[in-house]
Design brief:
Layout lengths: L3 H36 L5 E2 L1 H11 L2 E7 L4 H10 L3 H10 E7 L7 E3 L2 E3 L1 H7 L7 E5 L5 E6 L4 H12 L28
Parallel strand pairs: 1-3, 2-3
Antiparallel strand pairs: 2-6, 4-5, 6-7
Amino acid sequence: MLSRPASRVAETMISDCLTWLAVLFVVGGLGAETVERAAGQQPAWHDFEEALAVADSTGRFVMVAVYAPWCGWCHKMKDDVYSSTEVRQCLAKNFVTTRLNRDDTDTVYQYQGRRLTPRKLAATFRAEGVPTTVLLSPRGGYVMHLSGFIGPTRLRSLLAYVSTRAYRSVPYEEFRPGAMNCNDRLRRRPD
């Protein structure tokens, strides 16, 4: 049995250890957050017309992120979803990325022989709300869109569905992303 002075020393040592553990936990957590943010870089965003040209010359698909500056969910997708390592890797391998500000009525882009503002382009792609993710073929043809916030797991599934060209034969609802992923490529055929 410990005497009173010895038990106070033990209590002090335990208290000091717990304090140091708490400090290490907080500092370690901050360090992990810093590493995660450093890893959370953005994809290479291209101008819309440039994205179409790069996609055409490389055979990669185009992912169009339709957004509005005031849209909180759009910012969340940009900061948390597009910057996730897995999504960025999938995008870099199979897609050229571009963003369209749906509220922009001044800029004009050339698309399929027409001159359109980002607002009219968004309507062409059936983007009625924001955020909307639009996927185009390497030649710029509309493949599909998905409205609303999409988390990283679902976005990777959507990207795999398009990049593997499963959309040609399987409805998205029946697509099994475990069978194929963004690193798989089916035989390339012109779109």
